Amino acid sequence: MDSSSCSPEYSGNYVYQVKENGGEQFVVNIEQKSCACTKWQLIGIPCIHGMAALLTSNRYPRGRPKKARILQSDEVMIGGKAKLMRNYIVVRCSKCGQRGHNKTTCDKRDRRNVAGSEAGNANGGGPQSVQPRQASTQTQHA
Q1: φ, ψ for residue 31 (rounded to 5)?
Q2: Which segments show compositional bias classed as Polar residues (predicted)?
Q3: What's the pLDDT tens digit per position in 67-96?
Q4: How many C-beta neighbours within 10 Å does residue 20 have?
Q5: Pick the residue with more confidence: 140 or 96?
Q6: Alpha-carbon distance values, 33 to 11, 46, 105 (Å)
Q7: Contacts with 10 (C-beta within 8 Å, 6 or more apart), sequence order
Q8: Residue 40 is inside which H or E element, if any?
Q9: Residue 11: predicted pLDDT
Q10: For residue 81, what pLDDT is reported?
Q11: With contact defined as beta carbons under 8 Å apart, do 132 and 121 qualify?
């Protein structure tokens, strides 16, 4: 015997009266997951009467379940995707070391390279920087 041999009728408050072809009737409560035949309560799996009621109520999932998850408290939906909120995260730029932006949005030059070239000129090595040229032109005008 299968659930197609049962005809459920909705009685209200998630309660169905399920009639078998043989004439027997069973009361099924799909919210409490119980049936008058007590198989649903004993086994934990819906009996044929419970399945008939579930299929009629549209509470039985059909097909593949949708891919949805519960967001954490620190997540928000942006563009259909779950993203972490950045309320408590302090972003620091790896180029200039300042807070509030990252290296992609940094509008300053790479200070490490500028500092490195100036340090190289102070030791007498590396390419000539802008400062010595300005100093030499100032001495020519004076």
Answers
A1: -75, -40
A2: 128-142
A3: 777 778 777 888 878 777 766 678 889 989
A4: 16
A5: 96
A6: 15, 7, 57
A7: 16, 56, 57
A8: helix 39-43
A9: 92
A10: 81
A11: yes
